[in-house]
Automatic annotation (TrEMBL):
GO MF entries: ATP binding; biotin--[biotin carboxyl-carrier protein] ligase activity
Upper classification of the organism: Bacteria, Pseudomonadati, Pseudomonadota, Alphaproteobacteria, Hyphomicrobiales
Coiled coil: none
Keywords: ATP-binding, Biotin, Ligase, Nucleotide-binding
Protein name: biotin--[biotin carboxyl-carrier protein] ligase
Signal peptide segment: none
Species this chain originates from: Bradyrhizobium canariense
Length: 270
């Protein structure tokens, strides 16, 4: 089976570059954007050898996993572009729900899985990381912003020794190929990219994201480089910051950091 766009993505005019193997789909997409290639365009592979996650962490996709990046040219500020990552999370969660439903129908008696969105950019199955998202933006010729959203999903295998324990669709009993998942994801992207509407629809995206948020209303500890910030995950604000209510009642916006559910003692231990 080869990679192909879903029917909705094809009708919307998206293009596709598929690779048997590549270092990084994000790097390829941004390099072509600098050379004048316009989006919207997907770059996808089932084997990525030099991918990156947040904070330059290695993100390797062994053969059979899904690594894809979508290039969009958007006339918005970088701050607004950053909120597109939440639409990406919704698109991926929706695609995973759809393929898991299909898998459960194919396998009589299997349970439908539930997924959740962990701020700012992970998809969880239970308490385990199933997928991650990396958004990068760069000004290119014509004063336009090239936005590349990288999406990596553990389809057949999951890394070990990660800060948050990881899992794969195969380990969860979902027997599906990266190609099938990608086709569904490409259509879901069109849906939520449309709702986001160059940031004008972020309020709707925010509400949908909160309905799927992991740990909402629960204790969190956030590592931002200094001492952990502890409190309760209160909500998501209009710019995409996590709002944490501290023990003294303060509402603290957090723009970036590693989130751990539970107390500060759990930071770095899960």
């Amino acid at each position: 089976m080869t990679f192909s766009l879903g029917p909705r993505a094809t009708s919307a005019g998206y293009r596709l570059a598929a690779f048997d193997q590549i270092g990084s789909t994000n790097a390829e997409a941004m390099a072509l954007a600098r050379d004048g290639v316009l989006g919207p365009m997907w770059f996808v592979t089932s084997e990525q050898t030099a991918g990156r996650g947040r904070r330059n962490r290695s993100w390797i996709a062994p053969r059979g996993n899904l690594a894809g990046s979508i290039l969009e040219m958007i006339d918005v500020s970088p701050a607004v572009a950053a909120t597109l990552g939440f639409a990406a999370g919704l698109a991926l969660e929706t695609a995973l729900q759809r393929v898991s439903v299909e898998a459960s129908l194919r396998s009589a008696g299997s349970d439908q899985l539930k997924f959740s969105l962990k701020w700012p950019n992970d998809v969880l199955a239970g308490k385990q990381k199933l997928a991650g998202i990396l958004l990068e933006a760069e000004a290119v010729a014509g004063n336009r912003l090239a936005v590349v959203v990288g999406i990596g999903t553990n389809v057949v295998a999951a890394p070990e020794g990660t800060p948050t324990p990881a899992t794969s669709l195969a380990a969860l009993g979902v027997q599906i190929g990266a190609e099938e998942l990608f086709a569904v994801l490409s259509d879901a992207w069109v849906e939520f990219r449309g709702i986001w509407d160059d940031g004008r629809g972020f309020d709707a995206i925010r509400k949908l994201w909160l309905q799927r948020a992991a740990g909402l209303g629960e204790r969190v500890a956030i590592q931002t480089g200094g001492s952990p910030l502890e409190g309760t995950f209160e909500t998501l604000d209009e710019s995409g910051c996590m709002i944490v209510r501290t023990s003294d009642g303060r509402l603290v916006p957090v723009a970036a950091g590693d989130v751990y559910f539970g107390s500060a003692a759990s930071v770095g231990a899960t």
